[in-house]
Each structure stands twice: as C-alpha cells, then as structure tokens.
Design brief:
Elements (H helix, E strand, L loop, with lengths): L1 H10 L6 E5 L14 E5 L9 H14 L7 H16 L2 H8 L6
Parallel strand pairs: 1-2
Length: about 100
C-alpha cells in the first residue's frame, strides 16, 4: 500500500491533493501517507458503498457463476473475458454507480 500511495503522490501536480476512498481491508493499511493525500475509509461492512464490489457482483451474476473451471488459469481467463465484455457496455458501467438512495 505504501508503494501505491507513493506513486499516486508523485503523479500529482504540485498544488493537487488526492482523496482516496478505501474499504477497511487489512491490506489497505499504510504506515505513511504523504501530505498531498487524504484517505477516507468506508464504514465497516458496507460493500454497497464500494463500486468495485458492485462490479464483482455484476460479473459473478452475469458471467462467472454456475461454472466449473479445470485450472486456476481457466478462472483467470474467464475473469478477463468477463471484464472485456463488461467494459464494452458503458451503459451497464454507468448504471452500476447509480443507486436510488444516492440521489
């Protein structure tokens, strides 16, 4: 996580400030955070607030469920194929971020 945050910090313009929203996964802990970065943590047990969780839910529901894979590489290939089909549907991507309770 420290390396990731360092790279973000370096890529920012001189007067820019990044706000990064993270869940509280154990691997999302960092010892140091640069002055030009603020981390906002999502509340515990709130996957509905994390857009990537919505993406994985969509991929599982539409492309990855009820299948048996022979090897781990088959799983990786299926995930890549599902991701490629997903990104070809901008209307679906947009709709995943829209929730009635957000408006």
């Amino acid at each position: 996580m420290n390396l990731f945050l360092t790279e973000i910090s370096r890529s920012l313009s001189e007067n820019a400030h990044a706000v990064i929203i993270m869940d509280r996964a154990p691997w999302h802990k960092s010892v140091t955070v640069s002055d030009n970065i603020t981390i906002l943590y999502l509340p515990p047990y709130s996957p509905e607030l994390n857009p990537v969780e919505q993406v994985w839910d969509y991929l599982r529901s539409n492309y990855l469920s009820n299948r048996v894979y022979e090897t781990i590489n088959d799983v990786f290939d299926a995930c890549c194929d599902a991701g490629n089909m997903f990104v070809a549907q901008p209307e679906v991507i947009f709709s995943i971020g829209m929730r009635s309770w957000i408006n």
